[in-house]
Amino acid sequence: MADPAKAARPLSPHLQIYRLQLTSVSSILTRITGHALMAGALLAIWWLFSAAISPAYFACADAVVHSWFGALVFTGSLWAIWYHYLAGIRHLIFDAGMGLDIPTAQKLGWACIIGSVLLTAATLYLI
């Protein structure tokens, strides 16, 4: 029978020994960017809805959209669009059975992250 005394060792995987993998980060970023897209969509819908209600209500919504908060939400949504686009291409490559080895998967993960930031900066520059 097993000894009921507890061992003095950490549970596996413990935060002190677990190294976060790029595939985990990519999965987490996909969920975060999905929420950013939803926030941007809700803000845009509220802005359009307020235009149909009254000029005073639209002025309030327009002030929020043109504030630092609105700029932050729409910039985050823009980055989320680019990230989802590149991650979708990455998953199409994976679905074709290519790029499944660890070095290629890591390169594609970094390409999604860095590429989305660069494409967001380029889009903001062009706007």
Provide an overview of this structure.
By secondary structure, the protein is mainly α. The protein has a single domain (22-126), classed as 3 helical TM bundles of succinate and fumarate reductases, CATH 1.20.1300. Helices cover 76% and strands 0% of the residues. The chain is built from 4 helices and no strands. It has helices at residues 22-53, 55-65, 68-95, 102-126. Helix 1 crosses helix 3 (68-95) and helix 3 packs antiparallel against helix 4 (102-126). The longest helix is centred in the first third of the chain and has 32 residues, at 22-53. The protein is extended. The chain starts with 21 loop residues before the first helix and ends with a helix. The model has no long low-confidence stretch (mean pLDDT 90).
Provide the residue-averaged pLDDT.
Answer: 90
Q: Kindly give the count of domains.
A: 1
Multimeric status of the protein: single chain
Task: Write down the Rg.
Answer: 22 Å
- CATH H-level superfamily: Fumarate reductase/succinate dehydrogenase, transmembrane subunit
| Annotated CATH architecture | Up-down Bundle
Tally of DSSP helical segments: 4
> Overall 3D geometry?
extended
**Sequence of secondary-structure elements:** HHHH
Structural class: mainly alpha
Tell me the layout of helices and strands.
Elements: H1 22-53, H2 55-65, H3 68-95, H4 102-126
